[in-house]
Write a structure and sequence with these properties.
420 residues; alpha/beta; 6-stranded antiparallel beta sheet; 38% helix
Length: 420
């Protein structure tokens, strides 16, 4: 049942309250719910709980919902991103009831008498409205998942070190009889990987981009070992990536992981013939290259002739993954151009002009219009990397005249949107 106009007005009027108290409210919400319903610790990302990222993201989402309560279409991209992630960890409709109960409880606890019966009733209705939208969308995703609606066991068939910090894992079904041919995916999408974390005594799942062209026999993910140190706050406590560290340090060929059906809203839609004609510009930093590798490898596998520009930034040669793969593509594919920025290149490890083209941080001003395909109003731009990097690249492209609808960002972690 949709909100009444009075309820919508009340929700909108609470936006300033959420802006001021949102983080406190969502922090209390997670504390109460995860303490009293411990089974949900297997669902929520423990690292993002420790560093506050999950609470900040939810606070931002609540504020956005309140601010756009009369224009929910503006939130469609964010809702789609959340629903895809929910579906990748198999969130169930009944879990929305639990979340709603504790969210309203946290509102009452934090806001006290300011949460009048009218405001509480409006938020109950608003939450139900949003939950219904998301439950319906997630049901559609499950219906289109090739009958794969539970976690499946996969075996690590290969483990390959790509750089000092990135390792690739080739995953094959543990029981090929049940999955003779893996479901395909759109290049840029991800899978979730779930395993026990002995240090925490709980199960945890993480999303990792598929880093190769679709193959009916295996999925490949390329994982960065996350130290969990905030470079902008060196004094803060480190919150390491539990799953990435377990994968790097303890998981070996033959070990079993639980894997979900591919999901995600960041992709090049190669099903659409028109999408296979337009120029593609792939801009990444660090491990952000993984979904873009899937895109470029898919285009190569399909022998596409559409122009592709690869633009990548890395700290040093030792952490630069897949550099030979990209260099080979640029040498032998006339439609592929590659531009690599290395902040601290070592002359004894890399060759200028071959392994990289520019020294320093990524600066799109160093590329010409032809490399960026700025004169093509149908070109599509895919950006993946740290949030600040994506914000900078998005702003630069917009300053260069690229329409916002032609720019796609991959939002890792909690999915907070960078603001240019």
């Amino acid at each position: 049942m949709p909100l009444t106009s009075d309820q919508a007005a009340i929700i909108q009027q609470t936006a300033p309250i959420l802006k001021h108290h949102g983080y406190t409210l969502t922090t209390r919400f997670y504390e109460n719910m995860l303490n009293e319903v411990p089974s949900l610790n297997n669902v929520f990302n423990r690292t993002n709980q420790l560093n506050g990222a999950q609470a900040r993201a939810l606070a931002g989402s609540l504020l956005a919902y309140a601010s756009h309560i009369n224009d929910l279409g503006a939130l469609s991209p964010a809702v789609e991103q959340i629903c895809q992630k929910h579906a990748s960890v198999y969130v169930q409709p009944e879990q929305y009831d639990v979340v709603g109960r504790y969210l309203l409880g946290a509102m009452k606890e934090v806001l006290g008498d300011a949460l009048t019966p009218k405001i509480q009733a409006a938020w109950e209705a608003a939450y139900k409205q949003l939950a219904d939208i998301m439950i319906k969308r997630e049901a559609q995703i499950y219906e289109r998942s090739d009958g794969w609606t539970i976690w499946h066991d996969f075996v690590i068939s290969k483990k390959i070190k790509e750089s000092d910090v990135i390792t690739s894992f080739y995953l094959e079904p543990r029981d090929p009889g049940k999955m003779a041919r893996l479901p395909s995916y759109l290049p840029g999408q991800y899978i979730s990987v779930k395993m026990n974390v002995p240090e925490l005594g709980i199960l945890q799942a993480r999303q990792y981009s598929l880093s190769d062209a679709p193959n009916p026999n295996y999925y490949r993910i390329s994982v960065k070992k996350e130290k969990g140190v905030d470079p902008f706050d060196p004094g803060a406590a480190a919150n390491p990536g539990y799953i990435s560290n377990i994968l790097h340090e303890t998981k070996q060929v033959g070990d079993v992981l639980q894997v979900s059906h591919p999901a995600g809203e960041f992709f090049l839609d190669v099903r659409n013939p028109e999408e296979k004609k337009v120029p593609v510009i792939l801009i990444s930093a660090g491990v952000g290259l993984t979904p873009l590798l899937s895109i470029i490898n898919t285009l190569v596998a399909e022998d596409s002739e559409q122009p592709v520009t690869w633009i990548h930034a890395t700290r040093s040669s030792s952490v630069h993954a897949f550099r030979r793969d990209i260099r080979t593509l640029a040498e032998y594919r006339r439609n592929v151009r590659a531009h690599v920025f290395i902040k601290n290149p070592k002359d004894d490890e890399v060759v200028p002009g071959d392994d990289y083209q520019y020294k320093g941080r990524m600066n799109l001003d160093k590329l010409d219009r032809q490399d960026l395909l700025l004169d093509r109003n149908d070109a599509k731009y895919f950006i993946c990397g740290p949030e600040r990097f994506m914000a900078d690249m998005e702003k630069k492209l917009r300053d260069l005249g690229v329409d916002m609808e032609r720019i796609k960002l991959e939002l890792f972690g909690t999915g907070s949107t960078p603001q240019a």
